[in-house]
Specification:
409 residues, mainly alpha, de novo design (two linked rop proteins), 4-stranded parallel beta sheet, globular
Length: 409
């Protein structure tokens, strides 16, 4: 009975989500839609602030969703995947213009996927560990977040400039940044340790770099503009030579597969460098996301200057947006701890007595934060939430502990 109701509520929630998505799409195509449709929001802001006010607002726009930690609510990835497959068949069933399989075949597949969900165990056979929750979050990134972020920016660009045909730089800034408490919220949870926090950010980095590498490879493979129709300028050729020198033998193999296609060669070398970043191959890796962005913008400028702006600002710009949004770390990891833990740790360290395991863990966490900032940049782990604060001393305690943790021996 419990299993049946669990599946039932999964399906009801999924149906409601899909209905909501269809209602939003209808608004985009002119039907009466909800008041919060993006085009309507832009029109209201323009009416209130004018074009200059809207442009000024966009330069400072930042939306920062944060994934909070709820380990008891982390679904099995098998359940999430089963629901995704059911959702795909619902989309096919609801789209009257879709070509391909007839309705009876779509219904058959839908029932097959619902049956698969019913037969999938809803509960884990082993106790959920902190890194299991991290991997559940990575499923959200892999299956939706990575590809939907550029779609959001495209929609905003279309709303800002309805006449844009893709031949110019899109108007939307990369205003999204993501945060996460998963792997960082240790208030009352002894399972979240310094090691878990470090492993969390390494897992996140692995996923985003794999995503960027796959996107760069896919776009690069299709970037077949040749030097005859799209002649590169001297600056770009100089950058291409420098990239070949960095890539060594890999560049020779890419050039052999792409003769006369300098833009394709360059982006495929970029993909090799992203892979090297993931593998920590310092001879080829990018040190920072800004270096990757610089290469991508150089490629865009060269394509635009050669008369191919649609190649410059199409899928290639979506890759730029993804790098700007996710960097090499995917989400900013936020640390959370109870103020009482800090007070006890500071008192122990000040007394010079033997430290408790809890105090050692606080110090190890602060050292881990410093190491992660050193590797990925200060922004990757720069929010520290202190719960149950009573005075400013509860905040200054974190600074005092950080100084002690990171002081040279």
């Amino acid at each position: 009975m419990a299993r049946a109701f669990t599946c039932y509520f999964h399906l009801v929630n999924l149906a409601e989500e899909r209905y909501r998505a269809r209602a939003l799409r209808e608004a985009d195509y002119g039907a009466a839609g909800p008041a919060e449709a993006l085009t309507g929001a832009l029109a209201r802001v323009r009416a209130e602030l004018g074009d200059e006010g809207l442009d000024e607002l966009l330069t400072t726009l930042r939306v920062h969703p944060v994934f909070t930690a709820h380990p008891t609510e982390a679904r099995r990835r098998a359940v999430t995947s089963a629901l995704r497959r059911v959702g795909e068949q619902l989309e096919r069933l609801a789209d009257p213009s879709a070509s391909g399989a007839p309705q009876p075949e779509i219904r058959r597949r839908l029932l097959e996927e619902v049956d698969g969900l019913w037969r999938t165990a809803q509960l884990r056979t082993q106790e959920l560990q902190p890194l299991d929750e991290v991997r559940t979050l990575m499923g959200v990134f892999d299956e939706t977040l990575f590809r939907l972020v550029p779609a959001v920016y495209r929609e905003l660009s279309a709303g800002l400039d309805p006449d844009d045909t893709g031949a110019g730089l899109p108007s939307a800034p990369a205003f999204l940044r993501f945060g996460s408490w998963v792997g960082g919220d240790r208030d009352g949870n002894p399972q979240i340790t310094a090691r878990v926090t470090r492993e969390t950010l390494l897992i996140q980095s692995e996923h985003i770099l794999r995503g960027l590498e796959a996107a760069a490879t896919r776009i690069g493979t299709g970037l077949t503009a040749d030097a005859e129709t799209t002649p590169p300028d001297r600056h770009f050729l100089s950058r291409l030579r420098a990239a070949r020198e960095i890539a060594g033998e890999r560049a020779g193999s890419i050039e052999a597969r792409s003769p006369g296609e300098p833009y394709r060669q360059f982006l495929l070398i970029v993909a090799e460098r992203i892979e090297a970043t993931r593998r920590a191959d310092l001879s080829l890796a990018y040190a920072r996301p800004d270096e990757l962005l610089d290469d991508l913008r150089c490629l865009q400028d060269a394509l635009a200057a050669a008369g191919a702006p649609r190649q410059a600002y199409g899928e290639l710009h979506e890759l730029v947006w993804q790098v700007q949004t996710f960097g090499f770390h995917l989400t900013d990891l936020e640390i959370r701890q109870h103020s009482g833990v800090h007070r006890s740790a500071l008192a122990e360290l000040a007394a010079g007595t033997t430290s408790s395991a809890e105090t050692d863990e606080v110090v190890a966490t602060l050292r881990t934060i410093a190491l992660l900032q050193q590797r990925f940049g200060a922004h990757v782990c720069h929010r520290y939430v202190v719960s149950f604060t009573n005075s400013a001393a509860d905040i200054s305690a974190v600074y005092a502990l950080a100084e002690r943790a990171c002081a040279p021996n």
